[in-house]
Design brief:
alpha+beta
Length: 158
């Protein structure tokens, strides 16, 4: 279905904002105009839920999670940044593999199976996008993904 990604994303973030139990701030940097993309809403919700859950899990007390949507030529770039423990450089590709978890001792207590980002990679790929991570240990992590977008499409909605 066609949805305005900004409205769709805001709705998911609002749900986390209302239920979060941790003192973590949310900041949203979104375009002012609607951005229509064709997506499977259930699957994208699952992807974004996992990325936000991870960001919350690894965020420090009082930290900020920044949500950004950027419109590029033929795609949108969505990013979710936290100020948490980060991922060591040598592991940054592996977090998208099934059952991979950076540090067993560290993550055991935080729960999870290590499937979330592997599923995200599959689903973003199925949408014709890419997903990757940037991180600095001790500073934070940004998960980025793209979705195909046709800016000309907007004219058809008028
Ligand atoms: P699941 O999502 O299945 O409940 P999980 O969260 O451990 O389990 P993924 O979401 O696939 O699995 O993440 C894989 C691993 O990548 C995590 O176990 C963690 O080590 C690391 N990771 C993911 N997101 C972050 C983040 N925001 N900050 C630090 N480490 C992260
Ligand atoms: Mg996860």
């Amino acid at each position: 279905t066609w949805v305005d990604f900004v409205t769709f994303f805001n709705y998911i973030i609002d749900r986390f904002e209302m239920t979060k139990e941790r003192n973590v701030h949310f900041r949203r940097l979104f375009p002012k105009e609607a951005v229509f993309v064709e997506i499977d809403e259930d699957k994208l919700t699952q992807v974004i839920d996992n990325i936000i859950s991870n960001a919350l899990k690894y965020s420090p007390e009082g930290g900020t999670i920044t949500f950004r949507v950027k419109v590029l030529d033929d795609k949108i770039e969505v990013s979710i940044s936290d100020q948490g423990i980060g991922i060591p450089k040598e592991n940054i590709q592996k977090v998208f593999e099934r059952f991979y978890r950076v540090d067993r001792a560290r993550t055991r207590q935080l729960g999870g199976t290590g499937l979330g980002l592997a599923i995200a990679k599959e689903m973003i790929g199925a949408h014709g996008g890419d997903i990757w991570a940037k991180s600095k240990e001790g500073k934070g992590t940004t998960i980025l993904f793209t979705l195909p977008y046709d800016p000309g499409q907007e004219d058809d909605w008028l």
